[in-house]
Design goal:
The chain is built from six helices and no strands. The protein is an all-alpha fold.
Length: 129
């Protein structure tokens, strides 16, 4: 009986831990699913479901501030590993190959969000004139 009770308590604890982080709401192609899984395991508690921020303590990453020409893959990697003044380091929570997958997932999500910067808008207006 004690064995069953102990396993039941363990099951409840494990399910409550995984239920705490926001779960993905967007379907992504198979090649980005690992990155999505790693992101939701490590990053979504602060950066929100699908990296959108929205009422979280950290910024959404599907934003023009974090697109590739504004924030490089190396900057993502460095920030994830070593943190910032506002973000704790995650080097003990994520492996190098997982970071690579997270970045691929974020770049895919940014691309499908069709983010437009002020520079892009200015260039478009210039070409129309």
């Amino acid at each position: 009986m004690k064995y069953i009770e102990r396993n039941l308590i363990l099951l409840i604890l494990l399910s409550s831990v995984t239920a705490c982080s926001p779960q993905p709401t967007k379907e992504v192609p198979q090649e980005f699913k690992k990155g999505q899984e790693y992101f939701h395991r490590v990053c979504s508690n602060c950066h929100g479901s699908d990296a959108m921020g929205a009422n979280t303590k950290a910024p959404g990453l599907i934003d023009t501030d974090y697109i590739e020409n504004a924030f490089s893959d190396d900057e993502f990697r460095e920030t994830i590993l070593n943190g910032t003044d506002k973000m704790p380091p995650q080097k003990n929570n994520v492996k190098a190959d997982e970071i690579t997958e997270i970045i691929k997932y974020l770049r895919y999500s940014q691309k499908v969000a069709d983010l437009v910067t002020e520079e892009d808008m200015a260039e478009e207006e210039e070409s129309e004139n």
